[in-house]
Records
---
Amino acid sequence: MNARFNKEVDLAAPRKVIALSGGIGGAKLALGLKQVLPGGALTVIANTGDDFVHMGLHVSPDIDTLVYTLTGLNNAQAGWGRAGETWSFMAAVEALGGEAWFKLGDGDLAMHVLRTARLAGGEPLSAVTAEVCRALDVGATIVPMSDQPVRTMLRSDEGWLEFQDYFVRRQAAPVVHEIIYEGAAEAAPPPGLCELIAGDDVDAIVICPSNPLISVEPILAVPGIRGALATACAPVVAVSPIIAGRAVKGPTAKMLHELGFAADAATVMQRYAGLIDAFIADTSDIAALEALGSDVVLAGEDIMMTTLADRERVARCVFEVAGKARARKGTADRFSGVA
Ligand code: FO1
């Protein structure tokens, strides 16, 4: 839990907000946040535990899903890649007997080729990502959780699997026994990221409704980030990726279950214990959360984000709840030491 809150922020008109996100689930809320905030106010820390080198190309799926979603270039049906994509490259790869399980569209390919070339030229991933955000006028800052490689690895009934091998090639079918974030202990956040999180001008920090195990916790595993969040001046608000025992998208519920956890919003909230000041769950899950007697501020909302209006509504709810967290906890101990 945060040691203290800042006093100077205005949650009715937030100007500096940080979000942590994985792929499409988190990106939907990131878009809502961007829409209701003034231009440039949003920084999204992206999971890079899903990154891998495929056919010699550095692919950063969650960064790209965020870029495409925030610019409206995204393929909304698939939840990854670009809308109106063409597939000549993949067809040619297949004709040559190449690997076709991971699909790189023609437009998307440009992203991976440019990123790979710039990384090979010595630029860090954060700089390459910042250039992409500028070029595509993303209207928000996207920062990878680290410039060093961190790779999510899953021990399954089929042995140790790299993330995309598990997630895409095997369609998340293997039973998962253990998850590690290889390289996390040796990694560091990009320069300035922890200082940004700690800043007393930050209005709110949002943990988006992403899978805690494979999207948020890889970010928290990068040394310095968890500590910066736990002592941040701004209230930290998480939004549940689970509604009534089901993941909105993807294998979150299946993975929680296989690892011995109840696949519900309470498990997600408990995984963030010590970090969050408020938790937003679906209205149908609130009674079960209240029964836990946690001192985290709870809010029930329709968190299924189908339309852009839904995403903006949930984003506004985040700021309202952040305000409540500040009001409830922002006395005596929370303000002690703040000049
Ligand atoms: N997901 C798939 O299910 N199948 C694919 O062929 C696929 C290709 C792909 C290419 C580029 C990219 O940035 C993402 C891609 N994804 C694909 C999505 C991605 O693997 C996952 O959704 C994320 O890693 C989980 O957040």
---
Amino acid sequence: MMDRNLALETVRVTEAAAVAAARTVGLGDEKLSDRAAVEAMRAAFNRIDMRGTVVIGEGERDEAPMLFIGEKVGSGNGPEIELAIDPLEGTTICAHGLSNSISVVAMAETGGFLHAPDVYMKKIAVGPDATGAIDLKQSWTWNLQKIAEAKGAKFSELTVVTLNRPRHDDLIKEVRELGCRIRLIQDGDVSAAIACAEPNSGIDVLFGTGGAPEGVISAAALRCLGGDFQGQLIFKNDQEKQRASKMGIRNHDHIYKINELAKGDVMFAATGVTSGTFLEGVNFFKNGCTTHSVVMRSATGTVRHLTARHRFDIKPSMWGPSFN
Ligand code: FBP
């Protein structure tokens, strides 16, 4: 089992990335927001005793300068860990100053995460009260029936969240015809998946297609929260299939259960960049800021919320990289 203190250490990494990204909120520059988060996260990792390997990261080695898939991070001492990271989940959200952008790190022992290529993934996520009630082989209607039964709820009492994309037009129509409510989000389906397991979020289920890396990260979070998740990789062309094959994926149609996406002992840390359903964002004050984070472990199911005050006058490195 992984050392439980590692999760509490790792929250420093998501805090650093969130603060750096928060400095760019609303500047309208997605690349700048992403770069700020990535550079701060990369630097913060190296202050932690671990031998980490990025398996879900910023992209393949030739396309990402930092935190690419296969990159080794950490001090080089300590346990061997697999990392699924998203330094800034919701780049556009952050650049436009909207809600629900977060910085995320999930950890597992070697072999714990599906090494998913950067393609799309069809997803269903639910909270603990509907665990076991989902099946991606079946229709959205079938799934909503099972979720309603599991929760003892009527369709009109269920809220589905999905990314607002033309590819979801049929899904949205089907959900509306049943009389379920639907919340359309512009970005950020990791926060949306987590919201399914938050009793006060007002969200019951995530349906639809988003990024596959985000799917693995969502599965890790829901393992810790006792929720459920299923995902199926969606390929646009043969080139994407070949990339998946190179990453060890043989059956391209496989429906992955939560334990196939994130298995064994899993830990998860996230810090809010902009405020949302799940975490408050970074609030700046003179010479400092406040961050809001969550740290969770699958082994115990403990969910810790951490509010931290950071002083830039005492710890200038917390301000993050310079953008010039
Ligand atoms: P980024 O933070 O990488 O921009 O991802 C945001 C996101 O909305 C994810 O949450 C989601 O899984 C994916 O993009 C959806 O992809 P697309 O915008 O192509 O529909």
